[in-house]
Amino acid sequence: MPEIQKSFVEPDITVMEVSGRITLGRECQRVEWAIEELIEGKQKKVVLDLSKVTYLDSAGIGISSS
After folding, report:
1. Distance from the CA of 46 to the CA of which of 7, 11, 33, 54 falls in 20 to 30 A?
2. What are the backbone dihedrals phi and psi of residue 65, each rounded to the nearest 5 degrees, phi first?
3. Whose CA is closest to 32, among 62, 7, 1?
């Protein structure tokens, strides 16, 4: 299960750091829900930090690039 940490950079940037595996299923869905939550919260500038992701399959790539 991926770990997701959010931090904020002034004035209006959200950094979402994801670590672990992002694969088809719950892992992928968890990342998608976190992104949707930011969008619903009117966050317009989001940086995805995937530097600590250890494995990313094609489903994870689809989520990360949408």
Report:
1. 54
2. -100, 0
3. 62
